[in-house]
Write a structure and sequence with these properties.
Structural class: alpha/beta
Helix content: 10-25%
Largest sheet: 7 strands, mixed
CATH architecture: 3 Solenoid
Strand order of the largest sheet: 2-5-8-13-16-18-19
Number of helices: 1
Number of strands: 19
CATH topology: UDP N-Acetylglucosamine Acyltransferase, domain 1
Distance between the termini: 60 Å
CATH superfamily: Hexapeptide repeat proteins
Length: 168
């Protein structure tokens, strides 16, 4: 005998998922400098010293890490894809790993992302980067240099493709 499809299970699953997202978002908003209109995908990790402007969204699996002395600043109306990693800290080459004398050293530099920036899926943005407003970062890119306003970049490492001349 075939199994009968029960639509209430889909509705209940959607309800539970939305409640979980709402709970996680409210918890993040209380502890961070994130505008209340920001949409945050599931399984995002957002560190302290992260500032996100209005109407920006983060796809699932994003990681936004700052340091004790650095920040990540994201503007308004940004579209950030799935599994994007934005990290304003890294290991310092002078002492990249821990040893018997203590922990590793870190290098920290602020990251600034302007307004209306589109960042594709699986992008990595390293410490010290500035991305101008209306820029586009292609999927699977590694951003190691600053990106100008309206510039479209992509690749590993991300390089200039062209400027967006269609934007009014």
């Amino acid at each position: 005998m075939p199994i009968k499809y029960i639509p209430i299970i889909d509705e209940l699953s959607a309800f539970i998922l939305n409640r979980a997202r709402s709970y996680k978002k409210n918890k993040l908003l209380k502890s961070k400098n994130i505008h209340s209109s920001v949409r945050i995908g599931i399984n995002c990790l957002i560190d302290k010293n992260v500032f996100i402007g209005k109407e920006t969204y983060l796809g699932a699996g994003c990681q936004l890490y700052s340091g004790n002395f650095s920040t990540v600043n994201i503007g308004d109306y940004c579209a950030i894809g799935y599994n994007v990693h934005i990290k304003s800290r890294t290991h310092d080459l002078a002492k990249p790993t821990a040893d018997k004398l203590g922990g590793n050293k870190r290098k920290e530099q602020d990251i600034f992302i302007g307004d209306n920036v589109w960042i594709g899926d699986h992008v990595f943005i390293k410490e010290g980067i500035t991305i101008g407003s209306n820029a586009i970062i292609g999927a699977n890119s590694v951003v190691v240099n600053d990106v100008k306003q309206r510039e479209i970049v992509g690749g590993v490492p991300a390089i200039h493709i062209k400027f967006n001349t269609l934007l009014k």
